[in-house]
Amino acid sequence: MKKSLISIRDFTKEEILHILETAKEFEQNPVQDFLTGKVIASLFFEPSTRTRLSFETAVNRLGARVIGFSDASNTSQSKGETLKDTIKMVNNYVDMIIMRHPLEGSSRYASEVADVPVVNAGDGANQHPSQTLLDLYSILQTQGTLDGLTINMVGDLKYGRTTHSLLQAMSHFKTKFVFTAPDELKMPKEYKEFLDSKGIEYIETASLEEHLNNCDILYMTRVQQERFTDPIEYERVKDCYSLDAEMLANVKDNMKILHPLPRVNEISQDVDETPYAYYFKQAENGLYVRMAIISYLLGHRPLR
Amino acid sequence: MSQKELKVSALENGTVLDHIPAENVYKALEILDLKDIESQITIGINLVSKQHGKKGIIKIADKFFEDDELNKLSLIAPDATVNVIRDFKVVEKKKLEIPKEIRGIGRCMNPKCVTNHQPIETRFSTAKKGDKISLLCHFCEKTTDSKGLF
Lengths: 304, 150
Known about the structure:
The complex is a heterodimer.
Chain A: H1 13-28, E1 39-44, H2 50-61, E2 65-69, H3 83-91, E3 96-101, H4 106-113, E4 118-123, H5 129-143, E5 150-154, H6 161-170, E6 176-180, H7 189-198, E7 202-205, E8 217-220, H8 231-237, E9 256-258, H9 279-297
Helix pairs in contact in A: 1-5, 1-9, 2-9, 3-4, 5-6, 5-9
Chain B: H1 3-7, E1 13-21, H2 25-31, E2 41-49, E3 53-61, H3 67-71, E4 81-86, E5 89-95, E6 101-103, E7 123-129, E8 132-137, E9 143-145
Antiparallel strand pairs in B: 1-3, 1-4, 2-3, 4-5, 6-7, 7-8, 8-9
């Protein structure tokens, strides 16, 4: 049966660990062209540079070819074609569909319309599972384990889908969370209830300094202007946190800073040179993780 | 149901839906797709109820429902009772059960959900929290309560 990756919840703990294991293999040996002859669609109904290039590089490294578009304005969607018809049409040509779309739930719907596996590369503010898997991979690579860590999430915890999905995925492991956010951008109730139901501890604070020195992972996020409906609210909170090198004097030795990128003012440039900065390497890890996802869904790296 | 109420317009054969919140009677007609049927329908709204203050009642002659159809009503009328009438007698009386999944009724309250922009049948899984029913959208994964559904 075909398997798609739409939400991080589609993968069991076992599958998550398998993807991370497979990603490690690709990091050690990134040129493996066992998908020669395959064609994979890259449908970006909403622009994205980082995710699209990372996915398309992964496809190329595996030997497959890419068709698709990076902007919906040149497609039949702009003529009023339904998403269903676009997916049905592309489905005839390819072995897999990778898609990003501004509407939430669009990837789930596409996976039910298509016969080939669908990978969700972001559906609005909902899910972006490959980002979550590369976050997990980065945590595992820097800490040597996923169990028993303290993760401090900072910034926009209300609209930031990366923090929500990471929280869901880390709930498989014995994690402690710190949620650092201004009042306007606090972690939504449904996610805190989810943690309560799993018996997972969390602390909430508005102060970045308060729990900086006792976390293993500092997961910084950008306050995303595009998610705000109220421009005044955005102006009030956009620069709520700003991390600089001086603030890192007493952090744990193993502490690493992750950020889904792009960053704006929340991490100052002088942090880049510290041993705690990991966000550029994290972005690179995305390539290996996406190679692992594509291989697994196409049956080339099955769960044993 | 008391005999007295039934006499208002006694059914020979059919279904009586009782204890519907008064304000949800029209929604109930919509959910059961009763707007265009030929059978005789009697509707009571703002009737006095000991349990609920004001209630609604719907009596449909010569119409019998599948449980699946009726259970959709549990979203707006969780305490409704169903009386199946044959030959002027109540032959079956039942309570509604909340279905695990509901399809094709209501709208997702998330304005950015794909079901609000493309011709797609809505689909929710239900969860009961206290006396509230929350609905998880199959597509956008957002939770809405049953009040926001219509």
